[in-house]
Amino acid sequence: MANNYDIYIYFIAKKxxxxxRWARELTLKILYASDITNxxxxxxxxxxxxxxxxxKVSKSVSIxxxxxxxxxxxxxxxxxxxISKYSKNWKIxxxxxxxxxxxxxxxxxLIYCLDIPNIVVIDEAIELSKxxxxxxxxxxxxxxxxxxxxxxxxxTLGETSKLSNM
Length: 166
Known about the structure:
CATH class: Mainly Alpha
Strand content: under 5%
Shape: globular
Number of domains: 1
CATH topology: N-utilizing Substance Protein B Homolog, Chain A
Order of helices and strands: HHHHHHHH
Number of helices: 8
Structural class: mainly alpha
CATH architecture: Orthogonal Bundle
């Protein structure tokens, strides 16, 4: 039987997962808009792209989404090199805008957000692809991310020769 502390931890973890999922969706929307318009959004994008007009983006969601967007932009070249290496026969330019940005976000989290378990990052990316992309995307995204996970498990771009040699 679970004690009160276990129940509390369960609900906190569940709430955190939901907030991070919302942040990932918001990040995907910002990256998508940026990709198709070739414009870099400001922090105002977080408010403009909230889930519905009657809902405001919570501070914790906004903070995590900002972290993701900023991190992906600062490391875009390295992230895209990793994706290119593992998405055999699929150049970045040939990937759908949604798939490309889901992969960018997941690769950023796999390599730079070491506090998030790899399985969570991959699962969240697959769920985003199921919701926003076509029927073949989840398999493609899973395959690319799983290969990256196997090679770079627990390493950041600066810590592994595999990534720094790209």
